[in-house]
Amino acid sequence: MTALRIGGASAADMELFRDWADEEGWNPGDSDRLAFVVADPTGFLMGRLGGEPVACISAVRYGAGFGFIGFYIARPAVRGQGYGIQLWNAGMRRLEGRLVGLDGVVAQQDNYRESGFRSAWNNVRHEGVPSAGRVDEERGERGIEVVDARSLPFAELAAYDRRFFPEARDSFLAAWTGLPGRTALAAVRDGRIEGFGVVRPCSAASRIGPLYAATPGVAAALVRRLAERAGGPVAVDVPDANPAALALMSGLGLVPTFEAARMYTGPAPEADLPALYGVTSLELG
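and the corresponding structure tokens:
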């Protein structure tokens, strides 16, 4: 078997990460990679055969104790030949000693379990154009002002994000909300953040993530306003650990189209699941 050479991904390689994810039907964000490399510039690995890229993975470190695996793709021509597992092992070595999370597609979940991962919940992608609001739904929005999230002190936004993620990720969050073409909105009541969402252009439906909200009414307000800014169908990766979130997406007329299991190598980190309506990214958590 030809030796697989594994090394850090270049800027050109990151374009391939996106293209390959698109071919897998994952609907990657048009500019996600620009925020991803800010999170951990050395956390993206490419495997090459004879100089040709054939497999990729991300193994991103957050803080001192958490890591996330994503973009685990071997090109169809080399699948089943052991190259993918070599890259997997390299990524996991990079995260050794940390709690590691990932979002596993159905076909790979048994393999991840063999590597020590256990399911915490499923992220169910819901897509469509949200229905218009009714008067009774608007009651949950009373007293809420929806503002450009980038107009708020960043420290407050980062502190709010920490309720949903096990480590601070300030550099990533700043890039994620600030990239051109994106809309980031916050729901504020009496000076407190009670919701936050970002919509970004993607290969197909624009993706909303993260989506945090104190109530379903706040979440609905954010989804509708983000969808208006996107100007078309949207997709939200909704944790089924929050039944209210699933019910809301159904009520808005969004339909399930894709599913991946959030899995960890140890106990799931604490998160404000009742207020988590949509995860940020299936690639970086």
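(Above: one complete record from the training split.) The chain has a mean pLDDT of 95.
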